[in-house]
Design brief:
There is one protein chain. By secondary structure, the protein is an alpha/beta fold. It is 45% helix and 18% strand. It is flat and about 80 Å long. Helix 4 (126-137) runs antiparallel to helix 5 (141-151), helix 6 packs antiparallel against helix 13 and helix 12 (392-413) packs antiparallel against helix 13. It has 14 helices and 13 strands. Strand 9 (258-264) and strand 10 form a beta hairpin. The relative contact order is 0.12. The structure holds guanosine-5'-diphosphate. Guanosine-5'-diphosphate is lined by residues 226, 228-234, 247-249, 254, 276, 333-334, 336-337, 358-360.
Length: 456
């Protein structure tokens, strides 16, 4: 719902900081700001995108010294008149200025409402709005690059091209049905089949980027497995640079699976630390073991840790068998002490996936980083040429579009009349439209914006 009132919000974090920005957007933004602001010039008389120094007054009480930035619609973030007040970044002073604005009839914004206005004002589409959120939430370099690329409109462009092709065919069928003298449907089914294959192929490609896209955005789900005392916790500590996992000499102390996101060479690893996998009578430990097997099943990457200073025992051997059909790396840990394990012990494993490391000295961690990159991002990631689907909502819509196209294909094969095709073609068109926000239900749009942060 487009409400044409004026909104305000604190756009920066609500802690003590050098400056804190209050953002005001809507038809009354400049008028109300002018009423409270005393400077050398009136804000309404300033050119767009200029700033002025002044003071904010509540009646005769001075609240703060500020810089006011005036931006006039429609060429603003929200497409509306916007004023940003750079206040001193203390929570109390920001609160006072906000209270004053509210007293003047300006409504506190909902989370994401500024971006929602940009969307409703037609300045950005839904992929752009979602990209804004992804840029803010980006936790690693790759995720940031991919969301900046989406912000520049790459996904919108890809989707729009597909929709244009679909609407062209629909229009052609309808024209031919209405005006058979001028448009012939002879041999049309074959041509349509070809076009559908082409569009479906493009959709498939996009869906396939989803896996890599998820990995870029959310990180590589990594399970560290190994029997007790091989050094799993130490490796995790080394990776995270903290002592959050408990390291101990007593077997079986890493009981809970705990998740930790770490940034490793521009990537994010979503580490799932697991209890040592072994047969055990201990009930608490047993839960940990079950969970470890479960997390291994959910993992994109399994890192099996072995202790180079001991020979393999039956648990190691079992684990080696379990990881073989997964994406794995074997970390032969404790390379700083005399090795007992030999190459023959590790026969049957991919040599390329075996790394000697030491959680104590840090040896081998560079190689580990390179290996993970190579396994998950085989080619150089080129964000300029490749659109990555990083959003489950987008993926769901793509799958639905694909299903509708499959139905068109079935109708063609069953020799149904051309008018049957248009229904499913339009369904595919709409499913794709949801991605860019064109055929998105209002309440779904509201839900997407409600997940934004305050002041954006
Ligand atoms: P976990 O049970 O697999 O989590 O193993 P821990 O990380 O708790 O480590 C077990 C023991 O091995 C501890 O005493 C660690 O200090 C020691 N340890 C771990 N990694 C290394 C290593 O690379 N070299 C040496 N020498 N000791 C290590």
């Amino acid at each position: 719902m487009y409400t044409n009132d004026t909104i305000c919000a604190v756009a920066t974090g609500m802690g003590q900081s050098a400056i804190g920005i209050i953002r005001i957007s809507g038809p009354e933004a400049i008028t109300v700001a002018d009423k409270l602001f005393r400077g050398r010039k009136k804000l309404s008389e300033m050119p767009s995108f200029t700033a002025a120094f002044g003071r904010i007054y509540d009646g005769e009480t001075e609240l703060d010294e500020v810089i006011a930035l005036v931006m006039k619609g429609p060429h603003t973030y929200t497409t509306e008149d916007t004023v940003e007040l750079d206040c001193h970044g203390g929570p109390l002073v920001m609160k006072r200025v906000m209270e004053l604005l509210i007293k003047e009839g300006i409504r506190p914004a909902e989370p994401g409402e500024f971006t929602k206005r940009a969307y409703l004002g037609g300045r950005i589409d839904m992929t752009g709005a979602e990209a804004v959120m992804d840029v803010i939430n980006a936790e690693n370099d790759m995720a940031l690059q991919s969301s900046l690329e989406q912000l520049s409109g790459s996904l919108r462009k890809a989707i729009t091209e597909l929709r244009d092709k679909i609407i062209y065919e629909t229009a052609f069928i309808e024209s031919a049905i209405d005006d058979p003298e001028n448009y012939s449907l002879d041999g049309y089914s074959d041509k349509l089949s070809g076009t559908i294959d082409e569009i479906a192929g493009s959709i498939d490609k996009l869906i396939l980027t989803g896996d890599e896209g998820r990995i870029i955005k959310e990180g590589i789900r990594t399970a560290i497995v190994g029997r007790p005392n091989v050094g799993k916790s130490s490796i995790m500590n080394m990776l995270t640079g903290t002592d959050r996992a408990i390291v101990t000499d007593i077997e079986g102390t890493t009981r809970d699976t705990l998740e930790e996101y770490i940034s490793f060479g521009g990537m994010t690893l979503k580490l799932i630390d697991t209890a040592g996998i072994r047969e055990t009578e201990d009930a608490v430990e047993k839960i940990g073991v079950d969970r470890a097997i479960e997390s291994m099943n959910q993992a994109d990457l399994v890192m099996l840790v072995l202790d180079s200073s001991e020979s393999l025992n039956e648990n190691d051997i079992r684990l080696i068998e379990m990881i073989k059909d997964r994406k794995y790396i074997v970390l032969v840990n404790k390379s700083d002490i005399a090795p007992v394990l030999t190459d023959e012990d590790l026969e049957g494993l991919d040599k390329d996936k075996i790394l000697q490391i030491s959680a104590k000295s840090g040896e081998g961690f560079d190689l580990l980083r390179d290996k993970i990159k190579e396994m998950f991002f085989s080619k150089e990631i080129d964000f300029n040429n490749q659109v990555y689907i990083t959003n489950v909502r987008h993926k769901a819509s793509l799958i639905r579009a694909k299903e509708s196209l499959d139905r068109v294909r079935n109708s063609i094969e069953a020799g149904m009349g051309e008018d049957f095709y248009t229904i499913d073609l339009m369904a595919a068109y709409e499913a794709l439209g949801e991605i860019i926000g064109e055929s998105l239900e209002d309440d779904l749009a509201d839900k997407i914006f409600s997940e934004f942060c305050m002041g954006k």
